[in-house]
Structure formats: C-alpha cells, structure tokens
Amino acid sequence: MSALAANLLGFGRLLRRAGLPVGPAESFAALAALGEIEIGDRRQVYAALRATMVRRREHFEVFDQAFQLYWRDPEAARYAAAMEALDGLREPPEKTPPASRRLAEAMAPPRQPPPQRPPEERPPVEMALTVSDRERLQKMDFEAMSAEEITLAKQAIKRLVLPLDARPTRRFRPDPLGPVVDLRATARASLRQGGEILTLARRRRVSRPPPLVALCDISGSMGRYAQILLHFLHAVSNDRERVHSFLFGTRLTNVSRQLKARDPEVAFEMISHIVPDWSGGTRIGESLELFNRLWARRVLGQGAVVLLITDGLDREGARGLAEATDRLRRSCRRLIWLNPLLRYDGFQPKSQGIRAMLPHVDDFRPVHNLASLRDLVATLSGPSPARRIAA
User: Fold this and answer.
1) What residue ranges define each of the domains in the chain, with the CATH number in brackets?
2) Does the first or last residue of the chain, that is N or C, have fewer Cβ atoms within 10 Å of its Cβ?
3) pTM of the predicted model as reported, rounded to 2 decimal places
C-alpha cells in the first residue's frame, strides 16, 4: 500500500470516529479522485476529498477542521495532546465549538479501562448524591453534545412516543354497542327477514389523532438543533399517520415523503439532495406565507396541530411575519412555537421577528435538550387547552 493510500485510509477512519458516515466506498472514490487531479495543489486535494467523502452540508465544518489538522501531520491522530497545546495558545471561548470537541475526541487515543481491583479492596461508594449519565444527557444542550452523546440522544429520541389526543371525525363505523342507531343498516338487515325489524343496527363515531404538521427552521442559527430535531420528526413520521414535515430557510421544502423512509440515514440522504438552503439565511415571513398559500388547505384539516420550530431571527425583519403567523394560527387547532433561545434564563423577546410572532401562538416552549422534547410529548399527549381569544 502506498503512503498516500495509507494516509487516506487513516483520514477516513478519523472522519468516521468524528461521526461522519465514511465507509470503504467513499475512501476508494477519494483515492480515485486524487488520481485525476494535481496532487501538489492543496486546494484541488481539498475539493476532491470533500466532494467524495462528505454528502451532507452539516458535516462540512467537521471535515474542514479534520482536513486542516490531519493533512498537516497525518501522525497527529496518535498525539491528542498536540491539539490541546494549540488550543492553549489562545483564550478559551465561552463554549467549545461542537465540531472541535467531536474532532478532539476522534483524534484522542482509545481510552484504556481502569485496572480492576479485587473485591475486597474496593472502597464503599456513597451513591446518594451522584447524578447518572442518563440524567445528565437529558439536560445537556444539543449544541454542547459530543459525537458519542449525539448518538445516544438519537437513540433516546427513537424511543419517544407521541400519542396525540384522539378527535372525533365525521365518519362512523358499525358497533353493536354504539350509542347511535343506524337506520339505513337496520332497514337493509330487515329485508333479509321479510321486512321484520328484529334488531337495531348501531354505529359509533370514529376517533383518530389529528394531523401533525412541523415547520422546522434550518438556517445557520438553527443548524445544530435542526439536525437533532430531524431525528425526532423521523421517529414521529414512522410511528403515526398524517405527519407532514416542512423545512425552511430561504425557501420552503416539503420533506414528508422522505422522512417516511425506515432507515434514518436513507431519509436524510434524500433530504440533503432536495434541500439547497441548509445553514443559510432565514426568511420566516416568506416561508410561512408560502405555506399558507400552497399547503394550508391540504394538510391543516381536521384539527391539525402545528409545531413551528425556529428561533424567530428573520433577516427580513418582521415584514409580513405577524400576518402570516396569525393566518397560520387561525387555520389550525393549535400552534406551538418551539424556540431553542428559551434555554437562557434571561431570555427576552427583543428581536422584531419574535415580537411579531409571539402574540399569535398558543404555546411558547423551549426545545434544546431531551428533557424539553419529553415535556413536549407530555403536552401533546394531554387534552388541548382552551384557545385564547385574540383582542
């Protein structure tokens, strides 16, 4: 094996440890691409490797940092302390960037298990005041999670069940103990008895959960949370019927059909091909107005519940945002705004977009960790509160 192939194989292993779906097919494609370019041009090498080894926009940041560090010194994967030394030369930020943390964990050598002590030498441990890793994971912000913690969070999201309260529909079904007498069925049954009515046919109104519509912001400020919440929407879409999901940044994209795929990686791969504005700008007002015009009558019938997932930071200001939100609220039974900015204790609605949208929603909730998702599930599982009357 040549030195270039060996280094490329090590680079693929590094990306895989950092959480990127890089397998042998991507490594072979990258090796073939390097044979078609000028190997001495660093920009061409970077473009060839990113084109063949990265398929999703949200992985670009991790790839860029891994490329800059690994191809400067391919042996750096064995010395994680070098990365810490580089970080120590500058002032530490208030919060470590998630991509840097994931890359540092991927480059660190495997942790050796602690030596086992004989049973008689183990000191007694008081467990009364300790906090389990599961409880810590429930309260950890999605933006601060490492690659391993994100994987555990995705597994926990798959186990969430979202039973919305059933609503009566206009349809009926036969039921011998039903409260309503079915005169038409009774008359048909009497014809088989020579016109004699021996029993009364009964029926019961069919009840089913209302449709669930999710409008998720995928702009740059919401990119990290959108990645995790897409797993929540995928789990819900595969667990129940009549779930409609839309992504918006600078434009609106319907991804309901793609999220129906059983394999989440297949679903997100299809989404990456049809969503061109991931981690871009935000036009909330235009996106909501487009949804109201093209999709509201199709998906908001029978008492639909709408989840609006956005931080409310619109680059167009509040132009048309209040009117679009008000129309959306009047078209559905319940409008719930999920905003990750509510994770801050001192949050105040100071931006124009938040102030324009807030009076027109039924519920304003945080969505930044697993605990907030569980609270959302509990809220949707109970009966709907009485809607506020607009002044």
Assistant:
1) 3-107 (no CATH), 167-208 (no CATH), 212-381 (3.40.50.410)
2) C
3) 0.62
